[in-house]
Amino acid sequence: MKYEVILFDVDDTLFDFKKAERHALQNTFTQFGLPEGATEYKASYDEINSALWREAEEGHISPADLRVERFKRLFSVHELDFNPDAFSAAYLRYLGEGAFLIDGAVEICEKLSDRRLAIITNGIKEVQTSRIQLSPLRDVFEQVIISEEVGCQKPQAAIFDYAFTKLAISDKSKVLMIGDSLTSDIQGGNNYGIDSCWFNPSEKTNTSEIQPTYEIKNLMELENIILSEGHVLKNL
Questions:
Q1: What values do phi and psi take at 126, rounded to 5?
Q2: In 3-state terms, what secondary structure has residue 176?
Q3: Residue 141 burial (CB count, 10 A)
Q4: What mean pLDDT, rounded, does the chain reach?
Q5: Of all helices (H) and strands (E), which one includes residue 149?
Q6: What is the spatial distance between Cα 51 and Cα 72, in angstroms, rounded to a whole number?
Q7: Residues of the chain whose pLDDT is less than 50?
Q8: What residues are labeled active site?
Q9: How do residues 88-146 score in pLDDT, each as one tens digit?
Q10: What are the angstrom distances between the C-alpha of 44 and each of 39, 70, 123?
């Protein structure tokens, strides 16, 4: 078989992070007495949070610092009088409840049950662990590798080094990285010399120089790539 080890991203690849995030923001703002805040400040939060995660990918901020810093910045911009540490703790608790799966996640993992499946995710340990454990995928993965635990992020090579050591992988040609992010999942896989598959359900146009080996819009398309020994048309 061509691909023996399948490395999955978590957020917006197997799990619906946007839905989990909405759940967490709504419940947290409601808990802090501002139920309309989840709607009123969502765009601003997205901008701040995305910028900080880009900084994390580049190694400029740790997830431990990011978890509170995003709310410090949000509250500063909008002059909100909330304790960012307490708000962050509540938000992460609600986020950890968000075990909402992307369509096809369970089915494709069942189809690939004869392969070695593992997770590599940029995220916060207690959140990612909770969501996976609350889901039907709790016993599917041989390893769950979380950037906060490892101390580095995709696309950095160090997190792939860690994964290859934990999984005792020696042949990069047998590994496929699957994820929704060109800059972390696909760039990380490409830099490390492993094949990559861009999960692009919204059919976004790739205007970057980052080129995946494969591109799919539905998780079940992985069946054709992996179970047909990779003999499908690659994106060129």
A1: -70, -30
A2: strand
A3: 19
A4: 94
A5: helix 147-150
A6: 14
A7: 230-236
A8: 9
A9: 999 999 999 999 999 999 999 999 999 999 999 998 899 999 999 999 999 999 999 99
A10: 10, 10, 20
